[in-house]
Amino acid sequence: MENISYQVTIGETSRVYPAGTTYLSIAREFQDQYEHQIVLVVQNGSRLEELHRELDRDCTLEFVTTKDRIGHDTYKRSMSFLLVKAVHDVGGHDQVERVRIHFSVSKGYYCTVEGSVRVDEAFLKKVEARMREIVREEMPIEKRSVRTREAIELFRRHGMYDKEQLFEYRLSSKVNIYKMNEFEDYYYGYMVPNAGYLKYFALYLYDEGFVLQMPEASAPEIVPPFEPSPKLFQVLKESILWGDLQGIDTVGALNDMVTKRDMREVVLVQEAYQERKIAEIAKQIADRKNVKFVLIAGPSSSGKTTFSHRLSIQLRVNGMIPHPIAVDNYFVDRELTPRDADGNYDFECLEAIDVEQFNRDMQDLLDGKEVYLPIFNFKTGKRMRSSVPKKLGEQDILVIEGIHCLNPKLTRQLNDENKFKIYISALTQLNVDEHNRIPTTDGRLIRRLVRDAKTRGASATQTIGMWQSVRRGEEKNIFPFQEEADVMFNSSLIYELAVLKQYVEPLLFGVDKSAPEYAEAKRLLKFFDYFVGIGSESVPTNSLLREFIGGGCLDIEWRKIDI
């Protein structure tokens, strides 16, 4: 038999390897040149591969480490598998009914265990010990491809009915199954080759379950201390409980609703639930007689604009007269805007806002004075004064929206008794299945892809390309202050991904295969394969979702700069 070899180029280095050489073997040769663990490879600039795959052609390779976003996601996904196996090993397969990985808390995942086991400190210590034992053994994570029907039968036997339900709607004929010894599971996305890669984690007992704490991508070998966010946690937990109450906790359950029930009822119940929440917030504001400034902040594509309009309507129901104020109108003139490390204007930093003028104007309004509020001209980059003065009457209240609204420095000269702070975000309560969560950032990115294409003519390539920059701005300017809020509002709609599917898929198919953004587009397209889509006809015209798909009844002026 002829010996076949292939040439592999890595940076400036070219080497020849026999056919069948694993990427893992190649990665080990180069690992000492990298500060962090190599977990994946990119073949020929666009094709992402797991390390167990074998060389079958001449190619260029780039290594993906745990510091890269995709590599970091791979680490966390593999860690979830390790956790689930360890829980079953310690608790017993016949005693553990299911392990649920719910949502992000601190820098980890909040998890619960259902069955005949008691989750306490003693149990958690045994789970951690078993996880570290598996890590020391470097237990292989094996992958095999099976027919979808076979996968359905397999997970039925294992009692993993959420996965059985999910694959009933799978159009693809094959499913990838991962295995650690006898334990088999399904995971959406790439995995590390063995448990030896999963050294950095900690477990913390919390609420009714526990938190699996993991490193951040910026420091992949350091597990940060667990720092709970009680307000955010309660909102997330409430959303999960509400989804459970509706019988919609996973994508498979949602698909069942789409195909076997009347989705119009599901949509109307979800919308009514959100309206009730908005009305409750308005009542809280009305009950605090000294409040004159309602401050609203949240990350990109949270639905802040529509929420502000709907809240304003409910404030009117409570006898108040709301007036919208955009903090963006207090931008300093363009030439005075600070620049970031790359020399670009940094519109997201607090210093881009004339904080002193903002506080003077707000205080003057509070004191009953007439104020000519500014208007920022985004074309000229200059701020000008309105020709019509504003004055607050007894029932008047300002509804202020901006990314820094929860930062105490923005309103440092205003009395706290006059402020009511609201944090809004699209906190996805739906999971792919019990072990595969849908990141909140994915939900917001999908919203933004649709919105940017519809209102700004931006391609999916452009939106995906700038997303990490947007995320960095959120991490710096928004998330650190979320617990400053008096209330939190979850703008995510349990049915929205089924609606957004029809809008976002054509955009993602438009990403060129040679573009750096293609891997992310491909991931999202694969993600939408799990969903049965629905039309937008049943979505009310005042829905938060209308901010992204269009057709809303609220008078929304699209912001020039959105983060």
Report on this model:
The protein has 563 residues and is α/β, with parallel strands linked by helices. The protein has three domains: 5-65, Beta-grasp domain (Ubiquitin-like (UB roll), Roll); 71-228, 2-Layer Sandwich (Threonyl-tRNA Synthetase, Chain A, domain 2), CATH 3.30.980.10; 239-549, P-loop containing nucleotide triphosphate hydrolases (Rossmann fold, 3-Layer(aba) Sandwich). Helices cover 36% and strands 20% of the residues. It has helices at 23-30, 69-91, 121-137, 148-157, 161-167, 230-245, 251-260, 263-287, 304-317, 355-366, 440-455, 460-477, 496-509, 518-528, 546-549; strands at residues 5-10, 13-18, 38-43, 47-50, 59-65, 96-105, 108-115, 142-147, 174-180, 183-185, 202-206, 209-213, 293-297, 321-326, 374-377, 382-385, 396-401, 419-425, 431-433, 436-437, 487-490. The protein has a five-stranded mixed beta sheet with strand order 2-1-5-3-4, sandwiched between helices. Helix 2 (69-91) crosses helix 3 (121-137). The chain is globular and about 85 Å long. The termini are far apart. The model is unreliable at 556-563 (pLDDT under 50).
Gyration radius from CA atoms, angstroms: 25 Å
Number of domains: 3
> In oligomeric terms, what are we looking at?
single chain
Average of per-residue pLDDT values: 92
* Percent helix: 25-40%
Tell the overall outline: globular
Broad CATH class of the largest domain: Alpha Beta
Number of strands: 21
CATH architecture of the largest domain: 3-Layer(aba) Sandwich
Structure class:
alpha/beta
Neighbour order of strands in the largest sheet: 2-1-5-3-4
At CATH level 3, the topology of the largest domain is Rossmann fold
Determine the number of helices (DSSP H or I, runs of at least 4 residues).
Answer: 15
Can you say what the CATH homologous superfamily of the largest domain is?
Answer: P-loop containing nucleotide triphosphate hydrolases
